[in-house]
Design a protein that fits this description.
It contains five helices and eight strands; from the N terminus they run H-E-E-E-H-E-H-E-E-E-E-H-H. By secondary structure, it is an alpha+beta fold. The termini are close together.
Length: 245
């Protein structure tokens, strides 16, 4: 899994790339077959095949492992899964984590034989200082519908949503007051997750999809499966001393 030759290598290059890509994010649901302005309804909230992606690192060995797990939306059964292991593509810089993760994530997604209807990322989309977190960046690069589900609110403000499952409150940028996502209660009385738009997906759809995927646990099943798989892939690579998929 080679790092792309044109991949940013400095903080300045990465910041410039985020600024270039940010205007390309579509922070709304696609319209129907008639196209923009047709009045056709948007597609179903999440389609049939939902992918989850996640990564695991070993900085001491300069390794990153990515997993892409494809689930059936109705049953939550695993349909297909793939991994990619390679060298870390970028140093750790807050707000630029996508540049560490995306080469491996793209390879893992490319190894799937079926195209997901939507991809759920373990991280942020528009809930990002430059409105281009991993989910939005991935969506712009691939054209796939994406959303982000994070475990923490990063630098944004929120008040605790009500206790019942499905309750939510706005996640806002303290500098502008802009709603960049939502704190969503996926289990009654359990701390919320933080949902944001990625690409080609509206915020209501992102929240609805997250709740569909988090029927029994705080985190979506997509994230739970991908997290477990990437950790196993990294452990296997370290044990065998190889970076092959």
């Amino acid at each position: 899994m080679p790092i792309p030759a044109d991949w940013p290598t400095t903080e300045a290059e990465a910041l410039a790339e985020q600024e270039r890509l940010r205007p390309l994010v579509q922070a709304h649901d696609d319209e129907g077959p008639g196209g923009p302005g047709s009045g056709d309804p948007a597609p179903a909230a999440s389609g049939t095949l939902i992918a989850g992606v996640d990564v695991a690192y070993d900085d001491d060995h300069d390794l990153v492992a990515a997993a892409a797990v494809l689930l059936d939306r109705d049953t939550l059964a695993v349909v297909e899964q793939a991994t990619a292991v390679g060298r870390i593509a970028f140093p750790y810089v807050p707000g630029l984590l996508a540049f560490r993760e995306l080469p491996a994530v793209l390879d893992a997604l490319a190894a799937l034989t079926r195209t997901p209807d939507i991809v759920v990322c373990d991280g942020y989309g528009l809930a990002h200082p430059r409105r281009l977190g991993l989910a939005s960046h991935l969506g712009v690069l691939t054209g796939l519908r994406t959303l982000g589900v994070a475990k923490t609110p990063f630098t944004f403000d929120h008040h605790a949503p009500d206790a019942p499952r499905g309750s939510w409150s706005p996640l806002t940028d303290p500098a502008t007051g802009e709603e960049v996502g939502r704190a969503v209660r996926t289990r009654e009385g359990v701390k919320p997750v933080f949902v944001s738009v990625g690409h080609r997906t509206g915020l209501d759809t992102a929240v609805r999809t997250t709740l569909d995927l988090a029927r029994h646990y705080r985190l979506p099943e997509t994230t739970r499966h991908a997290d477990s798989l990437c950790r196993r892939a990294l452990a296997d690579a370290l044990r065998t001393g190889t970076t092959a998929n």
